[in-house]
Amino acid sequence: MISHCQVGKPAPEFSLSCVRADEEAPRSVSLSDYRGRWLVLMFYPRDFSFVCPTELTAFSAHVADFAGRECDLLAVSVDSVELHREWLMTPPAEGGLGPLRFPLASDPQGEAARAYGVWVEQKEVATRGLFVVDPDGVLQYLVKHNLSVGRRPEEVLRVLDALRTGGLCPANWTSADGTIDPEQCLQPGRILGRYRIRKLIGSGSFGSVFAVWDLRLQRMVALKVLHRDVFESRDVALAEGRAAAALSHPNICTIYAVDEEDGLPVIAMEYLDGVPLSQLIQQGLDRKDALALARQIGLGMAVAHSQDVVHGDLKPANVIVTTQGIAKIVDFGLAAATTASRRTEPGDRNQRRPGVDSASVESEAFAATIEGVAGPSGDGIQGTPAYMSPEQAQGRRLTPASDVFSFGLMWYEMLTGRPAHAGRSVLETLGVLETQDLGPELAADVDEPFRPLLLAMLARDPRRRPSMNEVLQTAPLSEPLTAAHSARKGHPAAH
Fold this sequence. Notes:
The protein is of the alpha+beta class. It has two domains: 15-165, Glutaredoxin, CATH 3.40.30.10; 273-472, Transferase(Phosphotransferase) domain 1 (Transferase(Phosphotransferase), domain 1), CATH 1.10.510. The chain contains 15 helices and 20 strands. The chain has helices at residues 52-60, 63-67, 81-89, 111-115, 153-165, 234-245, 277-283, 287-306, 363-367, 390-393, 400-416, 426-435, 438-443, 451-457, 468-472; strands spanning 15-19, 27-30, 38-43, 71-77, 104-106, 119-120, 125-126, 128-133, 139-145, 191-192, 195-204, 207-214, 219-226, 255-261, 264-269, 274-276, 309-310, 319-322, 327-329, 336-337. Strands 2-1-5-4-3-8-9 form a seven-stranded mixed beta sheet. A six-stranded antiparallel beta sheet has the order 10-11-12-13-15-14. Helix 3 (81-89) links the parallel strand 4 (71-77) and strand 5 (104-106). 43% of the residues are buried.
């Protein structure tokens, strides 16, 4: 049998007969019996040997310490349950164990020992392997000793304490110490998983983005590292990132991987060479460039909506214009996948919505994308207030129509050079979104050819807004235009 025993993978299953000093009859024991608790599984060579009694009785003396950590002990050798029973009944002075406080299991053919990679073929016994299995049945620690060297329970307890923290623990760690904060260790030269950090690109309230070298694929990528304490459920955040990673379009920043490294949720994405659209707007966009970029953004969003992915924080700072004039929508890594079970009527309340805050470009340009995105309420209002739809400002569930409204606010800014809510505070902006119809006011500020479409996109009722495909089929965005001018010289760009 080939051992498939590997830390971080499910521990090999086993089914063995075992005996206890306080039980008369043998019973069967399997790995599944320990599900929901930690397990220290110890292999040893033989009963009535010289070293084995010393280590097993030492562990027995600490059974209460292990139990206090929700951990059980099980020792395994090739000896029969009958010999185990004899060993347990023999006084220690005569080479026995005495009343051991955990069971001894029999693995007569060495099947479990082979599965765990501790079988010594020449001697037909198991070497001193020790394995710590977590409550989910995943192997978290293993150590193999020479046949002549015993194990100490104090070190196993220290390791168990460290594993139970879920954090990073140095070599001299004890339960009285704090764990290493990996976020504080993220600096140039450090390696996080498969990524070597080159430099910090930018940071915000939800995480930081680094320029990193992918050691496996040998390429530069942008790595967003999410703060561990931001999300109520990192699994939800990572699952939504994986849904967004399925998007593939020239106008969407590609997500390469969504994972967890050293306890930190990370999203690896395309490393872009360009500047935020917000910066180009501040410097002034001509009409042709504004239309070309708006169409590209619409094309990318239409593809996202066709795959049931809502962005939720569409804004100029979350669009990067490359040096080739290509608009790239970023931060889909934290967008929400809207499955059929999640779609609700416009009046329904949203349970929880992660915000988004950053892009993958060079430092100064990237800094422009790191905006405060959480509204004053932490119970569902998430996003950038200046680009929210009315339903988002009220904490209702987001739909593709919410992105259409945000796109309308962006387009207004691209056409006029000023934000729709210029001069308003966050609270004033949220108040306007909840009580006023912005469409007529903003449409009056743009030229006639743009008014009907802008008015429709900014409809207060999301059911009255056009879809993103309908936006693209309506003049003036219905006509394909040439790519916008490339990012101008002097703008910060990635290298």
